Queue: 2 jobs
Job 1
Amino acid sequence: MQSQRTFGKEAIKFTGMSKSLILHFNQPGLQTLVQDDGRYGWHHYGVPVSGPMDRFSAYLANWLVGNAIDSACLEITYSGPIIEFSESCQVAWCGADISPTLDGLELPGYQTINVKAGSVLRFAKLEEGCRVYLAVGGTWQLPKILNSRSAIPYTSDTATPSSVIRKGSQLEVKTGNPIQTRTLKKTFFQVGNKARIVTGPEWSKFSPAEQTFFLCQSFQLSPHCNRLGYRLNPELEGYDSRGEMLSSGIVPGTIQISNSGQPVVLMADAQTTGGYPRIANVIKADLDGLGQLKPGDSLTFEPVNLDEARRAWLNKKDKFISLIGLSA
Amino acid sequence: MHFTPFGDAAVLIQLEQRIDPAINETILSLHELIQASDPIGYCYSIPAYSSLTIVYDPETTSYNDFRERLSQLCQAVPMKHSEGPTISIPVCYDPDFGLDLNDLSSAIDLSTKEITNLHLSRDYRVFMIGFLPGFTYLGMLPPSLECSRLDSPRMKVPAGSVGLAGLQTGIYPLESPGGWQIIGRTPISLFRPMSDQPFVINAGDKVRFISINKREFHAIAEDFRKGSYQIHRHE
């Protein structure tokens, strides 16, 4: 195998003009979606936030190609697509390692890659994590629906058809002048098998035995895990359903207990309201790590207080800002 | 007013936990007031039957500071939310659309005609929109229509389905999984993502169901697609 250093050395010729790049998807992968930062201000109409399951990985990938960090990029889950690039461009990936290769050469992550026209990007074995974010430098030519290019859950086929990649999909990106290539150490990436939580609004409705079980158990992600939420096994021992409550708000990271006692962690595409008791919430700083879990992975919860949760978030943001040197 | 933390980036206001128009009015008033005042750190809020989830940015504000700002704001809350319009929604109660009509008829011991007539007998308040984009929670049903959810939810409820659950009725805006008992279908799409006005109904509005036959269903569906169907709103 040739040295991976081939990449990023060959500068793209400066043209001073924007070009129309087409990404041809010869294969879609298991689930490949366009995600930008998501939808805000529509929650009272039942519209979920969406956006990347691992936001900071998406932000970093965008930064590496000179895009605004909340720009659209590809979220590639578990197994990757085959993408052919019609024009030269700059790309970067961050997040899960799905063994990507460009024209047969190993493609390193966390750096700007100069891609030649006609190159083909493939993925192979999933080595670590679950979701990789692929950014392409330029402006993605996709309509915004409710002010976002993210695939909208339930109705993406009709509402955001271009944001869900299928075999034969084509995406257009208007590329600008290439930037000086950037490199980062692999950072902000975490497979979040240990998530910090704060107790939820209905925490006190659970018995001490149920609370202890929840905090001490090592849970496992069931096969029923997707962008809406993760169902965890096992169920709470001897759980006696409290019946449904009146529907009330849900935010990403909320953990509900279903009538059968199964914990459900609600993720980026989760419904905005729900009627099951909310035992806890994963803290904001640990949501990205959760986004890198896949069915079969283990998950334990560690309680923290609100001050600790806030400090964790501020630390994460500070580190991020000092890394990329701009206000996020 | 009782405030509790909800996760590390939201405040929850919970009023008495029951379906009550006056309680819901207060929630909607609070939602509008907070949205309009946009206190420092405010991101968005989710009004429900008797609760309001207010999401803030923990980078900008601490929980205690944000709760304090909310607390001051809420002292000024006008307890009367402005009366919303009444929106007419045509529904076809044909058993081809009312997938659970026959089973429900035996379960609650009313004929399908009686179920339909009872469903049409009053206007319903839109208590909240949630679950799916544009899914309306309407109430309250006439007590004799009270029914449980399906034992096992459907994997796919067709878009436009009108269902019953407990004392609530609701409209599925999109094809989705769901456990409500389906008694009819509207040809109107309650979520039009490409439109300037993607949502037809707001929390606090009233909904009046109008019975239509299958022929009218298809005609309205066609007009709606072409954009020539005018939804009737009574202010």
Job 2
Amino acid sequence: MDGWHFLLFASALRYVVPVSTQDLGEALTALRRFPQLPEKQVLRATLIHRSQESNAFELVWQAVFNQASPEEEKEEGQKGDPGSSSAQAPGPGGLGQGRGSGGVSLSAGRPSLAKVRALLAGWSRTVPEVALEETVKQLLGEAGAHTWLNAQELAFSRGQTTADDFEEARNHLESLAEALRRELKIRNIELDNSWESLRRESWQHKPLLGLTAEERTLVQTAIRQWGRRLAVRPGWRFSPARRGTLDLLATVREASRNDGRAFHLHYHRRLPRIPELVVLCDVSNSVAPYAEFLLFLVARLRANFRRVRLFFFIDTLWDVPAEIWDNDLQDLSPAIETWSSKASSGFSDYGQVFRQVAENVLPEISALSTLLILGDGKNNFRPAQAEYLAEIEQNVRGILWLNPLNPPEWLERDNALSSYRPYCKGVYRCRTVQDLHLIARALLR
Amino acid sequence: MWHSPVALLEALAEEGYLLDEEPATTLFLALALEKPCLIEGPAGVGKTQLALALARAAGRRLLRLQCYEGLDTAKALYDWDYAKQLLRLQAAKTENWEAIKTDLFGPEFLLARPLLQAIRASEPVLLLIDELDKSDEEFESFLLELLAEFQVTIPELGTIKAKHKPVVILTSNNARDFSDALRRRCVNLNLAYPTLEREVAILRRQCPEVTENLLDDVAEFVAKVRKLPLRKLPSVSESLDFARALHALHQKQLVLDQLAGTLAVLLKYPKDLAKLEERLQQWQTEAARTAEVT
């Protein structure tokens, strides 16, 4: 590796991973001292300090050196390995078998990365972040991957293949999708002629929706740490007292009221503020993945609140019992699914939900409560009924709204957030782990 | 110490520890660059065993610090021998106080804990800081000086620099994440579950009394179990126990419908056991169907 490529790689990697000058010095030392070792491995060992950063490393490596991705290497390896059953196995169910009424042949071959990549020949448009998953799905579809997986599933349900084979097929498709994602990101970099889009690959700036399993663990660990730190840093309030520090504001206020004739010193004392928290969480499909992280955060901060109540909603409200969300939220997803399939249409209706809160919940909660709403504000063109949120605002300490969408999307036609915004003390974007960190601080302020 | 990753691999293999080439290269680079190596991975993949084997292979004395919540410098670095200091005071009532005062906080009254022992050791040592993720963040910050400079500072005595740079191995089960500062000072080695071939080799080496057929079956079975969505996947040490358990039941090969009672050796949570038993039935059905076809 020459100096130019080394610097190019280091500067690109710095968009995603923190790389210090000392790291670079050590990488250079290692490359110089051990020229016989694979350069990629030397750089990975010296520059990557978290296993969760490996994907980003792979992406940058592939973008800079245009070398085979791990998926390609694996595929190549399988081609050369005559004993590899997965590379050469015919489609399940036997060649030429129909699929009943659908008439789709089971003989469709196992989709390879080369086949999928061939679809990208002559690709000349950048794919925005929001459209990435859709594009990957579409390309996989064009390569016949979905049909192939359906055939595998059918064969499995007929007992023609084993559960392990079906699992392997799903994993194969997932690894193809991952390779394709990486390929599209590299095309974006080339077309933009800029590394800037790499920044979104850092787990701290990545949308929570697109985190890998490893990154999810990392985010949860980070949230647990903030929880611990914030738990020992309570908010404060001042209470009037006979002794304590001088309350200058109250003293001056009273003096000015009496034209300075009566002058009484007022004192106050600082007390820890232990507020109540009411969480309203939209669990419709578009918001549910973000809800998981927010609830994880709230659960870690419970010690800072006198009382926490949690409500899920789509178009009706569900008062979630403490025992369901008290633990590590593992049982929450099935519970949400069961509830939403039984009691909801699946389309969010904020107006209806705020009416239910105003009528049924408001009498039960303290005026010192903070109401935290997690939702994208998409009301499916139903009436906003903002008057109910106004009523709620009159009876609580404040309303904070967390929105997983980017701010320009808050103004879209089917989004009712602009009607609700005047009644909120703060509206925050809640899309990345960085956003969550700011929210955690705002909550305890 | 070793001139190449392959030489390191062979030395570890001689000590009974089998490692793949990629992690061996990372470990080799950590040793060559004289940097601490932070080994991460799920419980039971052999992180601590790797450190122990490395100490044996390098012929270094092992100093081990087991981390836990609440671990502080008094347990990890040094403490003053208060009883001895009291005795010294009682024995020297007539002496000059200024002299005693200085003397009381001298090396004679210092109790060296593992970290200080590693720094002051007159021979090369290997310092294993085990399960660092169990310790508090304060302790992690305290380690930074040691990991970067191989020195510690004791207020009463000043800075003590290592005579011989110790090989430092830190292990973590990822119960919590570490700060960037700590990670930057280490070479990160992520140890995953071994491949099927590697696990067979490990089992054969560790359980020579068990038949090869049974060991192959066990490795294959465990690899399948690891693909299930379980809370705690079976580790290498549990594979070993499982193989020994089946051997104790005089089994020559793994038979799916004769596993009743043995699965608890492999999995530790009731929910995981229930999931595996359910999948086991499915595997049995599939095996029966395959047998019918053939």
